[in-house]
Each structure stands twice: as structure tokens, then as C-alpha cells.
Amino acid sequence: MKRFWCLFFMFWPITAVIVCWLAPGWNWWFPQGPAGDGLASSPLGRRIDDLFYMILVITSITFVGTQVALGYVLFTGARRGDQPADAEEGEKAWYTHGSHNLEVMWSIVPAGILLFIALYQMDVWAEYRVRNEFPKQVQSGPLAEVTARQFEWRIRYPGLDEEGNPLPLMAEPQPTDLYTVNDLHLPSGKPVMINLRSADVQHSFFLPELRVKQDAVPGLVIPVWFETKKSANYALLCAELCGWGHYKMKARLVTQPEEEWRGWLRDLHAEQTDDGVPEQAE
Amino acid sequence: MRVGLLIIGAAALAAVVGCGGQRAEFKSREDLSDLIPEAQAHVRQVLDGDDEHVGHFGSPLNSIAWERLPVRFHGAVGVFAENAGDGSGALTKLKVTLAELNRPIEPGQELVWVSGKYVGQPSPHVVSYDSKTNTVEIKPAVSVPPDAGDRFAVAPGAVLKHGRMLYAEHCQHCHGVTGDGGGPTAKYLNPKPRDYRLGKFKFTSTATPARARREDLARIIEDGIPGTYMPSFKLLEPEESQAIVEYVRWLAMRGEIEFKLVQSLKNDYSIEAVESTIESARKADEGLSNSAAREQIIAEMQEYLAGDWLEEFNDDTKFQSEQWRNAEQPDAVVLPKVARVPDTPESRARGRKLYLGQRAKCATCHGESGLGDGSQTLAVQKNPMTNEDYDTPGLFDDWGNPLKPRNLTRGIYRGGRRPVDLYRRIHVGIKGTPMPAFGTVLKDEEIWDLVNYVTHVPFEARERRPGDGGAESGADAPKVAASKSGPSLQVAN
């Protein structure tokens, strides 16, 4: 029976390691993304992935180490006889009040590792979340305002000036604004920023392929920036259980080259100023 | 292991508690129970069918494609034109004329004859289809060619079945299995989900008495209805959206026919009416027993159902189908004849005048400042269906739900925010609601003036209220854009 428990407790960590190892092949890992390589589709996303992998390596080493130690203890215990009286095989368990040196070690070493992670990730975090650290290109303002509501994403774009170029997006709706729903179009190849808000409850703006996730909080306007290298369609989901229709909040992010995006905006403008009168050839 | 147990536990819980208690059957109208049981049975038989009769609609799991209805049920529908084989031996290649091609014709699909000598025979399968020559190759071969003009359906019911699956996935939990707007989540919603059974849809591009077009419904599915719980289903494929539209139209037609069936029997064969008839018959003839009088009435009813009633039913359903068909005609679309009047302060001022004036009377419902608080919201209204006063003051729609006139200051336009959408809202009104059609009252230019005014209402300068959030404009965004737009709404859309 003791051997059974020894095997049982070793079986799970070994299975966990094997499954994690094979997971990417089964598509149980990060979403494949438009490139199909499973890498983040944004440069900042890559760095977030790097942080993730670094933490994964640290925790993996710790996990494997502790499991090996556990296995060793179980294994040596199992080799001992059941009968303490049996002098040849049996050996009594002993009591200990611990080792001061060991305690100090396993307090200081993890604390050091945690401190290292905390300091190491600060740049990425700042670039991702702190307005002043955002890339220069997005400091000029957001290109769209995304409003989450039960159960869809409503998007407001700035209107166009006389030459057909986008106006700056104002904080408040303007008569010239353009609207779409569940269809966020943005330029690719450069950092872009949106303003995120919520019309009702808490939602979460989630672009899994770009590793962007930001809660939309009622009453707040939250800037979110990201950059896609590749012009493609990306999934936009809600990642905060927001009500019974939470699963319906599927939308798409379409990124396209700047010129194409402007063209799309012009098409949208044409559609939204459509007065229905067929154009007559004169 | 624990996960497995959890799943089993959850499944057991769901089995005991149920998931909202939706059953795969069509619910009857409530007023069906006013009829005597024999009349009720007849209504159910006509709609759902029974052991001896095939109904016109069947059940959700066993739907009937009634040819009379202008619904795209099948993958493709066509008629046989001529034999395309070399004339020797068995016939495998048919030259056809397709009336509908809703899904690509693919090998392996069933080909069912709907008319002609092969009706009810085992159906052949499609082996290949050549769209250039309109030739279908079938297997097994037929020895005698069908007659020219024999109708057939390929992939029978494919669209309806697809629509049913998607409807169950996306729509049913609010709109209900029957399309009665009574799904399990409906009770949490305000406004209520649409009950299709009146055959009415609020936001259409067609004239006031006309039905909705397919594209009207598809647009609602794609864009949702802002300001309500109807979300956008933008990511559905066009084919999926079309399948849902067909299923919704089918449910709407079913509901309409059910309504008419009940109406046609209500006067003479409701429990109340039959009782009073028996009473008066007994007064006239002392010797008549209750059951004899009742039997007499039932016999009369059966006679009526087999004769005049059937004729009326056929006329009604043909007329109804015609109306749905007419809405699909290109000329059914309401389009402005005059281009939008330029959105100038003068135009808006004219619009404002109309808004307050006696001809359009917008302000009586929408209020002088557009807050949707006009005097009519406090008055007792008449129910247009029964011509009786409502019990409570305020406006109601044809479904009996209390209704608020749109608050125009919020900039939320349920029927769409394009100028043409707003034009249509004023020109044809909103169906099933007290919003009337102004197409005959106002000239196109006047409607455009109103559109210009209404779209400007959210931006009219008004007192800054706490929480308007006017101060926190985008970080470095230069202050440009419309000069007249004062502090306005929190949420635009």
C-alpha cells in the first residue's frame, strides 16, 4: 500500500509535466493567431509572453524540485518495514522541531525571486498600463471609443474632415461621429489607442491574440493601446462575466494598413450619411 | 476525476432543476383555451397536425414545409425542364430551371419531387450539378421522365433546419420556442423581446401596412437594436443570418395564422358563445337536452369547417403569403424622393417648428425638449385593437406593453441612425406602436428638416448637469469639431 501511495503521488506531477509539454501540440496553449505560430501578435504581447515563460520556468523548476523531494521521502519511507519492532527492516520515525537554516533559506530564496520578478516586469507593466509610458504615436489620442454594454461592443469613431481625413476623437459624441457595433477597425503596423468604457456593468476588453485584457469599468474612461504587425482579423471577447448574455459578446478587431483603414472609415461615413436617394446619372 | 464528478453533478442538477423548462413544442395562444375543446382540437390539427392529418407547420422538431408560405425552406427549388441524357436507357440527367438556390447543390443531397408522378416515391440523390447547363445528375435513375414543370426540392428543409438550430442557440432563450417573446430570459428584459406572432416588426423599410423585408430582419440581427437587449450578431455568416431570418419569418407566419384561426372560431365556438347558444336553443325548444343542443352545434361547426371556413382559411393564408411576398418586391422599399436637405441651422429651425407644430405634433409625445415626456404620456389612450381605454395612462404598443416615446436627447436610435433610417421612422412610423406614419402628412423636404432637427437634439446646448463628464475630454485632443455641441450625453450608442 505504501508503494501505491508513492506511485500515486508521483503519477500526478509527472502527468502534469507531460501534459504541459504536449499542450501546445494539442492547441491547448495560446491561441494560434493569424500567423498560425501561437506567438503573440503584438510586440508588447511577445514581451508579456516572455514574462509568462520566465515565471513558468521558475515555477516549473520549483515544482519539479519539490515533487522530487516528496517522491524521495515517500520512496525511502516505503522501503522501511511496517513493523517498528522488526529490527532488521523497521525503523522508527523521528520527531524534529525543524531546521533554522533551512527555514531561513526557503524564506529568503523565494522572497528574492519574487522581488526579482516584481522589478523585472516593471517596464512591461508601465508600458502596458501607465499613460505616460505609452508609445509616442498614441500620445496624440485615441482612434476610437469602445463602449461595452450588455451584450455587445458599440464603437464610436471620429468623423471625417472635408478632405476625408479622420478628425480627432473627442471625449464626447459629436454630430460627425461614426458608429459600428461589434466591429473594431484600426490601422496595423503602428501602436493605436482606444478609449474603453462601459454603459452598464463591468466588462472586460479581451484580445487574446494580442494578450490585451482590460476591465471596462462603469464611470471610467480607460485608455488601452496595442499594436498589430499583421493586418488580420482578431477575436475580441468579453472576459468578465457580465450577465446571462456574456457569451454573446463576441466581436472582431480588424486591423488594416493605415490607408486602407482611412478608406474603410470613408466607406463607413458614406454609409452613415446615406439618405437613401439613389444617385442619378445626369 | 473531481472534474468528472463535478460535470456529473452539474448534469444531475440540470436534469432535476431544468434549464428554464423550455420544451421542443409550440405553445398555443392563451386565448385558444377560450374555445370549446373541439374547436381547439381543430386549430391544433391545422397548425401542428395530429395522428390522421398533416399540419401546416408541425412541431419544432418535425417541421412541415408548407409550400404556400413564401419561406425559403430548402437548399434549392426548381422545376424539371427536359431530359438531358442521350435518350438511351434510364434517365439520370435532368435539365432543370431553378426557382430558388439558397444553398449550393452538392452531391449526396436528397432530391424530393413536390409535384408530378414521383410525389411520395423514394427520393433520388444528387450525384452532380452543373450550374452552367443547369443539369442535375441523379441516382437512382428513373425510367420514365417526369413531366416538364414538375417541381422538386433539393436538400429539403435544409435552410429551415439550419435556422432552427441557430435560433435555438442564439434567439430562443428570449424570443421563445414559439417566437412569442416568452423565453426564459424574457422576464428580465425591458423592453420585452419581440413576439413575432402578430406578424409585425417595428423597424422596416416598407410602407406602414406592409410586412417586413428579409433585409430588414437581417439588418436587425447584424446590428442589434441599440438601447434594447437585442444585441448585434455581427459575426454570423450571411448564410447563417439568412437561415435565422427564414425561421423567424416562418414563426411569424405561424403565429399570424394561429391568431386568425382563433379569431375565426371565437365568435361562435368559444365556450361562452356555445353556452349562450345552448341556452337560447333550450328557451326556444323546451324538450331539447343540453347534450343534444351541444351535439347539434358541434355538427354545425364540422360542416362549417369543411365548407365556408376552409375557403376563408385558404383565401386568408393566400392573402397573407401574398403580403409577405409583396414586401420583397423592389418597389416595396420606401425611399425618399428628395435628397436630404442640407443640415443647416435654418433647416433645423424649420424642423423645430414642425416638431412643435400642430401638423406633426411630435412634441405631444416626445416632449418639447425631446425628453420623451410629452403630454400624451400622461393621457389615457385607446387600444386600437379593441377600441377601449387602457386601464393605466400612457402609451402602449400592439403587444400590450407600456411604451415610452423615445428620449431624443440620448442620441440612441433603435431603428438605425442613418439619415434614411430616421426618414423612414418618420415616413412610415414604427409598426405596432403609436408612432404614426407621416409620409402622407409631410413633404419629403419637411421630413428631412425634422430629421436634421432630431439628430441635433442631443447636441443642443443645455445646462451642464453634474456627472455629464464634459470636463474630462481626451488628454491632448485638440478641441475641434462641431462648435455648437455643448456638453451632452454620457453614452452615445
Q: Top keywords for this entry?
A:
heterodimer, A: 282 residues, alpha+beta, Immunoglobulin-like, 2 domains, 5-stranded mixed beta sheet, elongated, B: 493 residues, Thrombin, subunit H, Cytochrome Bc1 Complex, Chain D, domain 2, 3 domains, 6-stranded antiparallel beta sheet, two-stranded antiparallel ribbon, 12 helices, disordered C terminus
Walk me through the structure.
Chain A has 282 residues and is an alpha+beta fold. Chain A has 5 helices and 10 strands. Helix content of chain A is 36%, strand content 20%. In chain A, the strands form 2 sheets. Chain A has a 5-stranded mixed sheet with strand order 3-2-1-5-8. The longest helix of chain A is centred in the N-terminal third of the chain and has 37 residues, at 43-79. In chain B, the strands form 3 sheets. Chain B has a 6-stranded antiparallel sheet, with no helix packed on it. In chain B, α4 crosses α5 (238-269), α5 runs parallel beside α6 and α11 crosses α12 (444-456). Residues 469-493 of chain B have low confidence and may be disordered. Helices cover 36% and strands 10% of the residues of chain B. Chain B has 3 domains: 76-156, Beta Barrel (Thrombin, subunit H); 160-332, Orthogonal Bundle (Cytochrome Bc1 Complex, Chain D, domain 2); 345-459, Orthogonal Bundle (Cytochrome Bc1 Complex, Chain D, domain 2). By secondary structure, chain B is of the alpha+beta class.
What is the topological layout?
The complex is a heterodimer of chains A (282) and B (493).
Chain A lengths: L1 H21 L20 H37 L20 H21 L1 H8 L14 E6 L2 E6 L20 E4 L1 E5 L4 E7 L4 E5 L4 E5 L5 E5 L6 E6 L12 E6 L1 H15 L10
Parallel strand pairs in A: 1-5, 4-10
Antiparallel strand pairs in A: 1-2, 2-3, 5-8, 6-7, 6-9, 9-10
Helix pairs in contact in A: 1-2
Chain B lengths: L1 H16 L19 H11 L10 E2 L2 E2 L12 E8 L7 E11 L9 E3 L11 E6 L4 E8 L8 E4 L3 H18 L38 H10 L14 H32 L1 H14 L5 H17 L1 H20 L17 H12 L6 H4 L28 E2 L5 E2 L15 H9 L16 H13 L37
